[in-house]
Amino acid sequence: MEIPLRPHAAGRDSGSMSKGVIPVRSRPDGGSGSSDPAIDRLYRDGRLVSMPTMKARRRALREALLSHIARTYFEPEVVYTEGQVNRRLAAAGTAILPGERTAWMTSRLEGLTLDSADPRRLAEFWCGVLGYVVYQDKDGSTVEIGPDPEVPDDQRLAELRGGPAVPNMMFVRVRDPKSGKNRLHFDICPIDSDQETELNRLQALGAAKVDVGQGDGRTWVVLADPEGNEFCLSRSLAPGQFDLHKG
């Protein structure tokens, strides 16, 4: 069954969320409705009951959908692990919004790949920056690095399935030189020293200050790795350097 978010949306390309329609599972007995009383209370003859504001309407719909998910996919008085919750939410999203993008992430950022003239040199630099170690080196043409220690494949798979995980980095040799400013860059922050101390350490590893038009008086420092890939050194998060409540 398809539930219009707006009365005038009925009969208009109702398979698209962008046009105000959310596909919802039909009742098990084949009748109309969303299969959950909390959702059914919002509708009369398949249309949303009049509410004072669109904000109130959306809030009520959201609460009804959450109620439906809780009733359908979770047992009362059962404690779930984070991984179990994520898997059940992913299943709920697939069932409630078939064919549409759901509110729950079902893909993970597994790794980052950088083109490089000298993968080993760049891998060595970023290992020094992040405390990573080399996982794999294919004759210097491709080098993969990641957090220390490297975990078994089955553990890594479980981490990725259970929630966001720290990405690995891979450096691949290419012939083309870097051209222009990167469209993507890293923001890093020290966690056990002040920003100035970390800046000196990064420069000793091979980083260099660069000007990409950031101007003066910034709280971050723009740097480039040995092959010119820009990244930013942000404020320190070290104890005594950063107060979560003061920002």
**CA-to-CA gap between the ends?**
47 Å
Work out the radius of gyration: 25 Å
Number of strands: 12
- How many helices? The count is 6
Order of helices and strands: EEHEEHHEHEEHEEHEEE
Low-confidence stretches: 1-32, 97-104
Described by strand count, sense and barrel closure, the largest sheet is:
4 strands, mixed
Number of domains: 3
Residue share in helix: 25-40%
What structural class do the secondary elements suggest?
A: alpha+beta
Shape: extended
Q: Taking strands numbered 1, 2, ... along the chain, how are they ordered across the largest sheet?
A: 5-8-7-6
Please indicate the percent range of residues in DSSP E strands (runs of 2 or more).
15-25%
Instruction: Tell me, rounded to a whole number, the average pLDDT.
Output: 77
Describe the structure.
The chain is an alpha+beta fold. The protein folds into three domains: 2-96, no CATH class; 107-177, Signal recognition particle alu RNA binding heterodimer, srp9/1; 180-247, Signal recognition particle alu RNA binding heterodimer, srp9/1 (2-Layer Sandwich). Helix content is 29%, strand content 19%. The chain contains six helices and twelve strands. Strands 5-8-7-6 form a four-stranded mixed beta sheet, with helices on one face. A hairpin with a 2-residue loop joins strand 3 (43-44) and strand 4. The protein is extended and about 65 Å long. The two termini are 47 Å apart. Mean pLDDT is 77; it is low at 1-32 and 97-104.
